[in-house]
Amino acid sequence: MKSCIKVVGIVCLSTSLFSCGNKDNVKLETLEDSANFCLGFQTAAMWAQRGIDSLNNDAFVAGFKAFNIEEQNMPLELEQEQYSDLMQRYSQILEERELAKIRTEYAPNIEAGEKFLAENKEKSGVITTASGLQYEILSEGKGVKPSLYDTVSVSYKGTFIDGTVFDSTVNGEPIKLPLIPGALIQGWIEALPLFAEGTKAKLYIPYDLAYGEYGNQGVQPFSTLIFEIELKKVIKGKAPEANDMMSKFQK
């Protein structure tokens, strides 16, 4: 349920990426030895999650030894801003590398989605917005239209373009969802304010307005999605005021 809600995925760990030896290369004679080995293993696990599949041992050990617990000094005589910039640039390289792998693996999803949307937009009753979102109104309601920061009560069914259902509330109770940017996929954020309370509609959502390059639980990366929705009720909310937003950042 709630597959229209964004969930940040975690890359699965693959310890086989690291081939820098095993516990047979070092004697683990004390509790401290074993604990230190485990600390190294945990660090490698963290690297694997970030997509680092190789390591310059000498550079790593030199950086480890360079840390001074009393001075809390920065490595390579860098200022904090320079250090942050260096690591940010390296993180971006890792992210681009991982994304390139995902894009290659799931290229068929991109091609199938583009073909489907190109054909679908020519159908009678289908409206395409500037963002690429497509929708058609099955039956129009007469109530109020929601705005950002309102809460909507909806019943929906989500399918892939091949018709496979991946999520549905049709046989259960309607679900309440807040129209908050970042809390729901962008396709829903854009579409729902277009509909009056009581409307039944069908959404055709490109991957970049759905779960994007990384996918979500049960949804593969680069997946184009279809939602049949019924907007049951609109519960008016209130946009956060500037002072409220500032107080959140300052906490």
Descriptive report:
This protein has 251 residues and is α+β, with helices and mostly antiparallel strands. The chain has two domains: 28-105, no CATH class; 107-235, Chitinase A, domain 3, CATH 3.10.50.40. Helices cover 34% and strands 17% of the residues. Strands 1, 2, 3, 4, 5, 6 and 7 form a seven-stranded antiparallel β-sheet that branches. The longest helix has 26 residues, at 80-105. It is elongated. It starts with 30 loop residues before the first helix and ends with a helix.
Highlighted features:
251 residues; elongated; Chitinase A, domain 3; 7-stranded antiparallel β-sheet; disordered C terminus; alpha+beta
Please state roughly what percent of the residues sit in beta strands, choosing from under 5%, 5-15%, 15-25%, 25-35%, 35-45% or over 45%: 15-25%
Average predicted local confidence, pLDDT: 83
- Rg calc: 25 Å
DSSP strand count: 7
Walk me through the topology.
Layout: H1 31-50, H2 57-66, H3 80-105, H4 107-120, E1 127-128, E2 134-139, E3 151-160, E4 165-168, E5 175-178, H5 186-191, E6 200-205, E7 225-235, H6 242-250
Give a short synopsis of this structure.
This protein is an alpha+beta fold and about 250 residues long. Helices cover about 35% and strands about 15% of the residues. The chain folds into two domains: about 30-105, no CATH class; about 105-235, Chitinase A, domain 3 (Roll), CATH 3.10.50.
